[in-house]
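Q&A log
Question type: sequence-to-structure
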Amino acid sequence: MTAEKKTGIPVDAKKVEKTVLTEAVKVGEKVAELKKLEEKAADLKKVEEKAAALKDETKKAVKKAAEVKEEAKKADDLAKKAADKAAEVKKTAEKAVADASKKTVEKAAAAAKKAAAPEASVTIEYQGRQYAAKSILEQATAAYMDAHKGSLLKTIEIYVKPEEGVAYYVANGEGSDDYKILL
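Response status: OK
Response body:
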C-alpha cells in the first residue's frame, strides 16, 4: 500500500524523496555535529585531566613553598643568632684588645721607667783602698745565709767602718758583733 492510499493525500514521490534526502542530510549534519561535540567532550576531558594534574602540582608547589618559607625562617633565625654571637665576640675582642693595650702601655711605662733609672755603683775610698758597695752587700748576704741556713733574709742594713777594715750588718732587724765581714 502506498502512502496515498493510507492517508488519502496525493504523494509526489520525487518530493518525498527530496524531503527524505534533505532530512537525511540534516541528520548527517547532526551526526557530524555530535561527533564534533564528542571530540570536544574528549578534549574537554583531557583538559580536565590536565587541570587536575596541574591542581595536584600546584598543591605540591604550595607545600614545597611553605617548606622553603619555613627553611628560610630557620635560616633567618640562624643568621640573627650568628649576628648576635658575632656582636658578642666583637665586644669581647674589643675588651680584650683594650685590656691588652692597657697592659702593653703599663709594661711600656714600667720598661721606660726602668730604662730611665741610671745604672749606679757605690765605691768607698779610704786611705788608698777601694771598697765596692755591691761587693760588700753580696759578702754580708752570703755570710748571713751561711750562718743561718734555711732562714729567709728579708732586710739587711750594712755599716762600713773602713778605719777598722770591717763592715757590720743587721739582718732582719737583728745585729751582733759577730755579724761582720772583713774588707
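Response note: DSSP finds three helices and five strands in the chain.
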